[in-house]
Amino acid sequence: MLAESLRSDYADSILDKDVRRSYGALAGLRLLDALETAGLDPFTVADAKTQGETLGLSASHTTSLLHRLSAGGRLTRVKKGVYAVTDQLTRLPRAHL
Known about the structure:
By secondary structure, the protein is mainly alpha-helical. The protein is 61% helix and 11% strand. It has helices spanning 2-37, 45-54, 59-71, and strands spanning 43-44, 75-79, 82-85. A three-stranded antiparallel β-sheet has the order 1-3-2. Helix 1 (2-37) crosses helix 3 (59-71) and helix 2 crosses helix 3. It starts with a helix and ends in a 12-residue tail after the last strand.
């Protein structure tokens, strides 16, 4: 009985960690989709924050997501405050700057 309870608690804690980890990934992808749908490529951090607000994201969370998307290869930082969506096939920015 105790072993089953411990296993259940452990499984719940792992599930909670996975949900938190995937939440950031899903929010980032939702933000990326909103930016692409709005035709913003390349875009500024201010553009991203505006789109993030429509998704219910705070400004600081949006900034964090931009960093994570850039580190993950989904965005290319063109210059300070300006990003472009990265083509997943060529790994180059889609926008012709």
